[in-house]
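Chapter summary example.
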Amino acid sequence: MDRIDEVLGEVPLPPYVTAEDVDFAVRAIAVHAPEQGPDGLRCRNDQAAHPCRLHRWGQRVLAERGLSEAQVRASVTHHEASAVRP
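The structure predicted for these 86 residues follows.
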């Protein structure tokens, strides 16, 4: 766990998970994906140890909504495939 995680703790879950929260969670997981660094897996977006705070938040939101791991993977894959590329 990175020092920032120790200081800030976990990102709180919303009081109830809406469809908009699910969209944000899928995006968080896609954007904060793992990437191999010289010292292990790091977050591709913020270079924190993977899984970073936002990746964990996304996973918790989707688990709260009742999505299985397969459904999460499918949602992230769909998000990445439909993302606009420059």
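To summarize the output: The chain has four helices and two strands.
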